[in-house]
Amino acid sequence: MCGCQCVFKLAISVFNEHYAIFVVTIMDLFTQGLLGAGMAQSGAKYEETRVAAGIGFFAGIIADADILIQSENDPLLNIEFHRHFTHSIFFVPFGALIAAVFLWPFLRKRLPFARIYLFAFLGYCLSGVLDAFTSYGTHLFWPLSDARLALNIISVIDPVFTLILLVAVIYAFRKYSHAAARTGLLLAGVYLSFGWVQLQRAQGIAETLAAERGHTIERLLVKPTLANMILWRSIYQNDGRLYVDAIRISPFSDARIYPGDSIALFDPSRDMPDLPASSTLTEDIARFTHFSDGLVALWSEQPETLIDVRYSNLPMALSPLWGIEIDTAQPDRHAQYSLYRDASSETRQKFINLLMGRDLD
Questions:
Q1: Is 14 inside a domain boundary?
Q2: pLDDT tens for the chain, residues 1 to 361
Q3: 238 and 177 both lie in a single domain
Q4: Please, which of 12, 119, 198, 299 could form a disulfide with 52 given CB 3.0 to 4.6 Å?
Q5: Domain count for the chain
Q6: Is residue 6 part of a domain?
Q7: In this structure, are 176 and 252 located in the same domain?
Q8: Is 262 helix (H, G, I), strand (E, B) or coil?
Q9: Interior CA angle at 59 toward 53 and 62, to 5°?
Q10: Same structural domain, 191 and 222
Q11: What are the DSSP E strand ranges found in the chain?
Q12: Alpha helices, DSSP H only, in 134-177?
């Protein structure tokens, strides 16, 4: 138990407001690359196992090149297009082709183009699918659907999932064994299945909690917290309000609920009746609401800030990770996208206490 606590303390300690996005991005890319490497190794011949790993790793990460889509004039452009069309299953053949064409000059003496493309295809094909399993989600079926699919089975980064892939890829690389790669992929799938079971348990607890409060759930979202499948964030809507709670589910002990706060769901006609319907600001509010899957509210501490209620520094709290600052006096200017991460030692310790199932002071 002490070892697990140290691991999570180390993971949480790096998430300060300056480096959080960088660390999450690197870990996410690394996991995507490992998945791509394992997929490519699984389809390689004995002598191709090592070069296939490199091709698959590269192909597995290039879908996230969409993070480079940014605009100084439009702060929401980046979050709107990250994990967008490059993660669609319909883009896979094109993404694999881009990777293969890029690698062809370096590998043409070792492999024919057809084999390079095959390994790039295998490496790229699950990039969007893996992101769909996370709590952040992706536009998996674009352009048929503009909805962001998030199955909420695993966190954006999960050290156990990454470690499974890492061990399998390294072993397959050293032993020229596609069987090892396939075993790693199978174990990773089993781990995702465990996440699905945990999600079902957390949803059942959240439904029971709402019923005990006399609430009718109009909408329910349950998602894992950072880097684990033990501590979950529950959000449900009832009578125009969003109720947030933390649920801890361990395979070795009884579930525990940490009751949280509630907040009024954002209603543009009620909260900003004088904002012009055709203004830039109104459009930005609609874009941010779509990105946040409709779970937005005005932050009580900063009433002119619209927050994404899905994410918080603590799973039972309303302090947001991000939001947009709305200046109704300038409706033709874009909303400012801002981060509100709390990296204080007090918040980190509270998260550890929640994760370990301890009482909060």
A1: no
A2: 444 444 444 444 434 444 556 677 789 999 999 999 999 999 999 999 999 999 999 999 999 999 899 998 999 999 999 999 999 999 999 999 999 999 999 999 999 999 999 999 999 999 999 999 999 999 999 999 999 999 999 999 999 999 999 999 999 999 999 999 999 999 999 999 999 999 999 999 999 999 999 999 999 999 999 999 999 999 999 999 999 999 999 988 899 999 999 999 999 999 999 999 999 999 999 999 999 999 999 999 999 999 999 999 999 999 999 999 999 999 999 999 999 988 789 999 999 999 999 998 7
A3: no
A4: 119
A5: 2
A6: no
A7: no
A8: strand
A9: 140
A10: no
A11: 219-224, 231-238, 241-248, 256-264, 296-298, 305-308, 322-325, 336-339
A12: 159-175
> Does 191 lie in the same domain as 232?
no
Query: Rounded CA gap, 328 and 344, in Å?
Result: 32
Q: Which amino acid is at 55?
A: I
Instruction: Specify burial of residue 289 (Cβ count, 10 A radius: 0-12, 13-18, 19+).
Output: middle
Q: Tell me the pTM.
A: 0.92
Statement to judge: residues 263 and 343 lie in one domain: yes
- Same domain for 143 and 29: yes
Domain that holds residue 263: 216-356
Please report, as a single letter, which amino acid is at residue 358: R
3-state helix, strand, coil in the chain (%, to 5): 50, 15, 35
Amino acid identity, position 49: T
Tell which of 130, 161, 195 closes a domain: 195
* Residues 318-327: contacts with CB under 8 Å, at least 24 apart: 318/244, 318/260, 318/261, 318/263, 323/299, 324/75, 324/76, 324/284, 324/285, 324/288, 326/272, 326/281, 326/285, 327/281
Nearest to 236 by CA among 267, 200, 260: 260
Q: Is residue 188 part of a domain?
A: yes
Q: Are 60 and 130 in contact (CB under 8 A)?
A: no
In this structure, are residues 77 and 67 in contact, taking their beta carbons and an 8 Å threshold? no
DSSP designation for 251: T
14-23 own/partner pairs: CB under 8 Å, 24+ apart: 15/226, 15/341, 15/343, 16/341, 16/343, 17/339, 17/341, 17/343, 20/339, 20/341, 20/343, 21/339
Q: Can you read off the two tokens belonging to residue 71? A: 């605009």
Q: Are 191 and 59 contained in the same domain?
A: yes
